Amino acid sequence: MGHPTTYPPIGADLTTLFAPLHQALSQANSVLLSVHINPDGDALGSLIACREIIQLAYPNITTIHGIIDGPAASYLNGLPGYDTVMDIHTAGNTALTQYDVAIACDSGSIDRLGACQTLFTNASTSVNLDHHKSNTRFADINIVLTDAAASGSVVALWAESLNIDIAKHPDLANAIYTTIVTDTGGFRFSNTQPYTHRLANECLKAGIPHVSIYRQIYERRPIAQWHLLADALLNAEFSSDKRVAWTVITCQQKAHWGATDEHTEGIVDALRQMHEVRIAALIKENPDGGVKVSLRSEEDTMDVGTIATQLGGGGHTMAAGCTLTNTTPEDAVKQLIPQLQALLP
If you average pLDDT over every residue of the chain, what do you get? Predict the structure, then answer.
């Protein structure tokens, strides 16, 4: 997930770094903002932060549409700007046929945009703002900083390049703070950097409700989610040396507890937090067949991102995922676990 001393990039000229984006927006009238399917706090927070920056710095732009594929995480519904974001499946004729500029945030590849891909590719100029190591550089303009703790950290540098003081804009600060609290695990993960804390400090100066933001993300979990977590931990399996752990969540389990896919959040991290475990995997059965896999490792020497990328997914060195089609949970375990064990030192 990067090293604390390398972000922002040493010696980087932010004006030059963001010049292509600035030029494109300076000549635009309409902008599409989109993120990966079923966005989390980093994705949606980045989208809303981009909207705030455009409204502050580009008076020439008259149309800004935030459009996503699939529901955002429920804990985000109190985020200022949440109500301006549209689902592509219900946007109807609101969406334009072609935008002057389309910006994708927190999406490692174009397919992660889901049903928003067509709107994105139809834009006159496409932009990719991200921090995933596996990013495929799929846009006309690619600003991908893989040492950033969150995509929101990349967006924050864009604001800085425009001399926007985050501390003076509470809604922008709220969105940025949501991104970094989400992707650093509340400042617990190794991707937390000196810059992350400096950025958080600027957000706090804006007077944001930081305690409420943290609680919404990490503490307001419904009973169904706790039941699912209990099931996952009770049914967890381990390699003979206990250093690799995995668990399976089936559609039947989710239905039994009245849980959704969102309620699987935190399970793979709970596995990884076990003292003996170095690598953890969560294998979730998809209702339409296949499985979705989430991977975590303890150290960057155990690169689960490489395995996820080889299997058609992506992510970071220590946190990654992929989807395996036409695969049962049992077959996924047989395929994955030997590969994960091979990563151990």
Answer: 94
Intervals of CATH 3.90.1640.10 along the chain: 14-217
Reported confidence tier of residue 292, pLDDT bands at 50, 70, 90: very high
Cα–Cα nearest to 159, from 181, 129, 134: 129
Name the class of domain 14-217. alpha beta
- What CATH class is the domain 224-342? alpha beta
Q: Give yes or no for residue 1 having a pLDDT over 90.
A: no
Q: Is 142 helix (H, G, I), strand (E, B) or coil?
A: strand
Single pTM value for the model: 0.90
* CA torsion angle 310 114 220 229 (round to 10): -40
Rounded distance between C-alpha atoms, residue 152 and residue 131, angstroms: 9
pLDDT, residue 10, reads: 59
The helices-and-strands tally (H runs, E runs) of the chain is 13, 12
- Mean pLDDT, to the nearest integer, of 171-195? 95
What is the structure's pLDDT at 4?
44
**Strand runs (DSSP E) across the chain, as ranges?**
30-35, 63-68, 85-87, 101-105, 125-130, 141-144, 237-238, 244-249, 279-285, 291-297, 314-315, 319-324
Q: Give me the pLDDT at residue 300, please.
A: 84
Nearest to 312 by CA among 112, 141, 36: 112
